[in-house]
Design brief:
single chain; 89 residues; mainly alpha; 4 helices; 2 strands; 60% helix; elongated
Length: 89
Amino acid sequence: MNGKISSNLANECSKAHIRELENLSFAIDQHAIVSIADTAGDIIAVNQRFSDISGYSHDELLGKNHRLLNSGRHPQSFLLQCGRRLLQA
């Protein structure tokens, strides 16, 4: 296989993998509450469902710690419901 064919094949495989990852990401975003934190526990990414359920915008969540969710903004019953949902997942 010459270099050009090999390069084209690698490029097509990369595109296919990117499409697959985009499809998986879309499916997860439609059905799951997702937040990603760094090693210090600060939120670095959230999906729209996380924002909708938490009541905070994407921008309000970024850089904050998950303790923000227990800031008194929501009643204890809401936090318990969130915990139960997480355990069911």
